[in-house]
Amino acid sequence: MSNEKLRIAIQKSGRLNEDSLQILKDAGISIDNGKEQLKASARNFPLEVLYLRNGDIPQYLRDGVVDVAILGENVLVEKGDDIIKGEKLGFSKCRVSLAVPKSMKYNGIMDLDGKKIATSYPNTVNAFLTEKGISAELHIINGSVEIAPSIGLADAICDIVSSGSTLFKNNLKEVEVMLKSEAVLAISPLISSERKLILEKLQFRLNSVLNARTSKYILMNVPNDKLNNVIKLLPGMRSPTVLPLVEEGWSSLHTVINEERFWEVIDELKQNGAEGILVAPIEKMVM
Ligand SMILES: Nc1ncnc2c1ncn2[C@@H]1O[C@H](COP(=O)(O)OP(=O)(O)OP(=O)(O)O)[C@@H](O)[C@H]1O
Ligand SMILES: O=P(O)(O)OC[C@H]1O[C@H](OP(=O)(O)OP(=O)(O)O)[C@H](O)[C@@H]1O
Ligand SMILES: [Mg+2]
């Protein structure tokens, strides 16, 4: 057997760290995790994990020092346009937005022409403003961007927004959403063909976890004369399973459904006489 290992970078500490370790764990990969260690190996998968600062990861990918990473899409947009974007991982959802003081009358992006904007994402802002034909002066800071307007450092800011509470607390309002982001698998353009084979195995496992996370296994009892209506509401993996109940005229119907779709159709299921609806989590889902 080859000793080849895939090198993955994940955030050392911060918002992505915990969910990144969790998704690897759910994919059946156990990592010996001395918290102070900056490098660790997986026990049961050919994977070496490097714990790094997010902002440094695009350069490591570019140089081929790491093969793959878990990173916010927003970081790739800012400084990794040569990095290959893989699977979206469904966590750390946020947006990168422009915000101005609540008291400012904002009629459109032209109101920012000639203004000063504080941000940690200069390339993203520049690309956005250039496309709109706006020129502004950027003030680059690495954190606490939202206080810039209140201390007279800038007229507007560009930063990450999620719940909006940081903007609210700083008397700011979101005026333009420049991009939407979530954690993604980021892949080095220099990855070797040998390691690519390991990456494909990792991607297969991650996809099984992701499919399972967004799907539910549902069971319900349905009167036979309504079965066709109910089946039309529920597209399954191939098609639903229908089993007769002991009580005549009734069937038990089993299927897999996207959780959002389930909430969309629940009222119609009930209207069609479905009873005893059970919804169960799925641990892994191989398509
Ligand atoms: N409030 C938020 N809600 C959801 N996701 C967020 C939020 N803030 C940041 N993120 C996402 O998580 C990523 C990591 O954010 P975090 O603040 O932990 O790290 P950082 O300070 O940008 O990076 P570094 O590891 O270099 O210190 C961001 O790039 C973004 O994709
Ligand atoms: O819309 P909200 O839910 O309030 O989230 C947005 C805030 O979260 C991030 O900061 P973080 O807490 O990661 O602090 P940091 O600046 O130290 O990275 C981001 O830079 C915003 O300030
Ligand atoms: Mg942050």
From TrEMBL:
Gene designation per UniProt: hisG
Alphabetical list of PROSITE patterns matching this protein: ATP_P_PHORIBOSYLTR (PS01316)
A GO term from the CC aspect: cytoplasm
Residues in ATP phosphoribosyltransferase catalytic domain copies: 53-206
EC number: 2.4.2.17
Catalyzed chemical reaction(s): 1-(5-phospho-beta-D-ribosyl)-ATP + diphosphate = 5-phospho-alpha-D-ribose 1-diphosphate + ATP
Family designation: Belongs to the ATP phosphoribosyltransferase family. Long subfamily.
Enzyme class: transferase
Family matches, as NCBIfam families: hisG (TIGR00070), HisG_C-term (TIGR03455)
The species this protein was found in: Gillisia limnaea (strain DSM 15749 / LMG 21470 / R-8282)
Regulation of protein activity: Feedback inhibited by histidine.
Biological processes annotated in GO: L-histidine biosynthetic process
SUPFAM superfamilies from the UniProt entry: GlnB-like (SSF54913), Periplasmic binding protein-like II (SSF53850)
Localization per Swiss-Prot or TrEMBL: Cytoplasm
One GO molecular-function entry: ATP binding
Protein name, entry field: ATP phosphoribosyltransferase
Cofactor: Mg(2+)
Record key words, sorted: Amino-acid biosynthesis, ATP-binding, Cytoplasm, Glycosyltransferase, Histidine biosynthesis, Magnesium, Metal-binding, Nucleotide-binding, Transferase
Entry superkingdom: Bacteria
Record pathway: Amino-acid biosynthesis; L-histidine biosynthesis; L-histidine from 5-phospho-alpha-D-ribose 1-diphosphate: step 1/9
Free-text function comment from the UniProt entry: Catalyzes the condensation of ATP and 5-phosphoribose 1-diphosphate to form N'-(5'-phosphoribosyl)-ATP (PR-ATP). Has a crucial role in the pathway because the rate of histidine biosynthesis seems to be controlled primarily by regulation of HisG enzymatic activity.
Histidine biosynthesis HisG C-terminal domain mapped to chain residues: 212-284
